Amino acid sequence: MENLQMVQDILELTAIPVASRNERAIADVLRKKLEILGLDVEEDHAGALIGGNTGNLHAILKGDPAIPAILFSSHMDRVANNGNITPVWNKEEHKIYADGKTILAADDVSGICIILEALRNVQNYHLPHGDIEVVLSVCEEDGVLGSRHFDFSRCSAKMAFVFDAPGKAGRIIGQAPSKGRITFDIQGRQAHAGNEPEKGLNALHVAADLLMHLPDGRITPETTCNFSILHAGTSTNVVCGHVELIGELRSTNAHEYEALCQKMKTTADAIAQKYATTITASIHTLYHTFKLEPEEPVVRIAMNAFKNLGIDTSLERGGGGMDANHFNAHKIAAIGIACGYAKNHTPEENLSIDDFINCGEAATEFIKVTAAGNY
């Protein structure tokens, strides 16, 4: 039987207009929901630091100090959308679909709803628990930027469950990559394209040569690189004098990541020397890789909880970053938990209600397993 409260939550929250750096409307709604459930809620100043209108929410449900504290997290923003998300509930298929005109925003509203369900169950069934902390971040979809500015010293929990991954209930993300944003600023020389083109240096030509010598695609099983943005020129009658080439590097291997960063810089230097020009390479690391082994307590709690519910588990490597990257970097062992959605970031995004509800039960079970010490 479908959990009508969870379905109602996701239909309500996905319909709120939200984007990265514009999470105000959903944050206000969630603050009230958390306070009704007995949590103390504070908002930080991350919004002001990233050019947004909302900070990260940090909420605490106080519990038995003899029971380890745990932390639940999801993000409030979503990828670019038309501001008019209309979820379609197919009751026969037990799925909620996007309407085909924009995303569904199950990434990551489903994670928020799963956390709310677990908190309701704690209150309704008077479940024993330690402190339960909740962090709802902003601007996750734009470089995992909101949680980068979160004050992790405020957290007492040393274990975190980040409900922010596609896939069926039972999928656990124990590893995620580092990500770097790469920008090459390539200088050419402007000249009149008709009168004296030989006096110019076409920066697009230099950029093309550079691009042919840069790593691209899947470099190794652990590392990928992609260049997809190029800004150049304003007129066809002027030899292009400047190009900005932008891409990304991801790797779950810290040594490979650093080696490729250095290789890109030396490649840029070589191409610049070839054309007697200047290429400035800037590599900005947005977040760092992490990997948690099966014996980690937070992993064992999740696996035992799913097992108690009869749900098969898998501990996997994810291809994208998440708030868990920043939690792990600040000594809070964090794993990603799949929420039941698929094809996120597209108009084909959909959510399996059965998996979604199972995840709500699993989040509740995480609390039970922690309290019982069965891990």
Attribute tags:
single chain, 375 residues, alpha+beta, Aminopeptidase, Alpha-Beta Plaits, nine-stranded mixed sheet, 18 strands, elongated
Summarize the helices and strands and which ones pair or pack:
Layout: H1 4-14, H2 24-36, E1 40-43, H3 46-50, E2 57-61, E3 70-75, E4 88-90, E5 95-97, H4 106-124, E6 132-137, H5 145-148, E7 159-165, E8 171-176, E9 178-187, H6 203-213, E10 217-220, E11 223-232, E12 242-251, H7 254-274, E13 279-287, E14 290-291, H8 297-308, E15 314-317, H9 323-329, E16 333-338, E17 341-342, E18 350-352, H10 353-372
Parallel strand pairs: 3-6, 3-7, 7-16, 8-15
Antiparallel strand pairs: 1-2, 2-6, 4-5, 5-18, 8-14, 8-16, 9-12, 9-13, 10-11, 11-12, 17-18
Please name the fourth-level CATH homologous superfamily of the largest domain: Zn peptidases
Helical percentage: 25-40%
Number of strands: 18
SSE run: HHEHEEEEHEHEEEHEEEHEEHEHEEEH
Counting helices, strands and paired strands, the structural category is alpha+beta
Could you say how many structural domains there are in total? 2
What fraction strand?
Answer: 25-35%
The main sheet comes to: 9 strands, mixed
Count, helices: 10
Kindly provide the radius of gyration, computed on alpha-carbon positions and rounded to a whole number of angstroms.
23 Å
Shape assignment = elongated
Q: What's the CATH topology name of the largest domain?
A: Aminopeptidase
Low-confidence stretches: none
Mean pLDDT: 97
Distance linking N and C termini: 30 Å
CATH architecture of the largest domain: 3-Layer(aba) Sandwich
CATH class of the largest domain: Alpha Beta
